[in-house]
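From the shared-data thread, chain only:
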Amino acid sequence: MASGGRAPLTMPFAAWARERQQRIEHVLERVLPGDDATATRLAAAMRYATLGGGKRVRPLLVYAASEAGQAAPERADACAAAVELIHAYSLIHDDLPCMDDDSLRRGKPTCHIAFDVATALLAGDALQSLAFAVLARGLPDDADACGVLAESVGVAGMAGGQQLDLDAAGTALGADSLAQLHMMKTGALIRASVRLGARCGRAMSDHETQALDRYARAAGLAFQVVDDILDVEGSSASLGKTAGKDAAQHKATFVVLLGLAGAKARAAELREEAHAALAPLGADARRLSELADFLVLRNR
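Structure, as tokens:
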């Protein structure tokens, strides 16, 4: 994987984030199949859906959590790549005609539009399997790492949350039910990103591990609340995906339930919860704290 030392804590967050985003791009370029793959069209679809776009929030969380455990970035590369490959797979499948049926993602045509539905489906499948291969090779001394990732994408995580989302179509969800849906659909992979990053560094106490999980729960839900806000306030050009689609599909969102001002207040509360959770980790959790700010204050 890529080389390089821990970034000094004095480095501004924006510079740190750019460095880590560039780093994970190089890692992904290496682990994805290239032009020499036998199934060239499938390989091209996998690269199209993964490279050159996105905020790389989940890899950033991996790197930030690994730094909280005083790990060098190369130790975290495999985990960062694995969660981004899973995320890319989930976006492909979310955009398919049988799911959200969307045509725009990261400012360009969705994978099934650029290729075709069958190839997009296979690309998602192949990205998921590649994620586990990368993780198993990168952390051969951690037998439980693949289990952490698997839990986040299965029936109790991403897939289950997507099913709840499908089941909720046309129904009125309460705030607790909506939060549970998103804690699974979006939040589970965010929690896994933090957990995997933390496993790359020093052994942590139960108190520290629980603190990180509280942080990840708050940050993951905040991410979704802000997504709901941006779907109302943002444009397709700024978001890189279709804006206003939640309202067009009559989906339950935090803006619908709480109002725009209420949703913004809830995001701010979750941001404070995330900050408070990090207290046991001290200065080593600086990047995680800054990421909580980034997730809530972002405009895309």
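The radius of gyration is 18 Å.
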